[in-house]
């Protein structure tokens, strides 16, 4: 499956204001832990998402970079997740807020990143996002990829 996604660096204080003003029935909050068992030549990651009392585990393979990448994701068991995390040093934790078709990730180090997925590259290229909490677009900038964040610790 093709994942078409733009990514933005955010002003954390401003996005927190927007989140606080979003009605709770239009806002989802997930706690995410993910780790990488391979980054090059393509990414293999495992992710645990927790929303309220429900946990789901995934294995994802991502190939390519930039606006459009190949992504294969499947749900896995807790045991599969735990067996693969052993010895991994490439772990990140973040809180994700989902609202207005936006995914906002807040990291413990203060970083705030927003991702927005699209059904086509044309739609992505024509979307004029006008949120005052956006600092700059970082689509394709590996420094802001989750894999790079995990490598930096």
In short:
With 153 residues, this protein is an alpha+beta fold. Helices cover 20% and strands 48% of the residues.
Describe what this molecule looks like in 3D.
- This protein has 153 residues and is an alpha+beta fold.
- The chain has one domain (2-152): Hypothetical Protein Pfu-838710-001.
- Helix content is 20%, strand content 48%.
- The chain has four helices and nine strands; from the N terminus they run βαββββαβββαβα.
- The protein has an eight-stranded antiparallel barrel.
- A hairpin with a 2-residue loop joins strand 3 and strand 4 (54-63).
- The radius of gyration is 15 Å and the shape is globular.
- The mean pLDDT is 95.
SSE layout:
Blueprint lengths: L1 E9 L1 H10 L6 E11 L4 E9 L2 E10 L4 E9 L1 H8 L5 E9 L2 E5 L5 E7 L2 H6 L7 E4 L8 H7 L1
Antiparallel strand pairs: 1-5, 1-8, 1-9, 2-3, 2-6, 3-4, 4-5, 6-7, 7-8
Largest sheet: 8 strands, antiparallel, barrel
**Percentage of helical residues?**
10-25%
Distance between the termini: 29 Å
What's the overall average pLDDT, rounded? Answer: 95
Structural class: alpha+beta
What is the spatial order of strands in the main beta sheet? 1-5-4-3-2-6-7-8
* Beta strands, count: 9
The CATH first-level class comes to: Mainly Beta
Rg, nearest Å: 15 Å
Which fold name corresponds to the CATH topology?
Hypothetical Protein Pfu-838710-001
Approximately what portion of the residues adopt beta-strand conformation? Answer: over 45%
- Tally the helices: 4
Return the domain count. Answer: 1
> Which CATH architecture is right?
Beta Barrel
Order of helices and strands: EHEEEEHEEEHEH
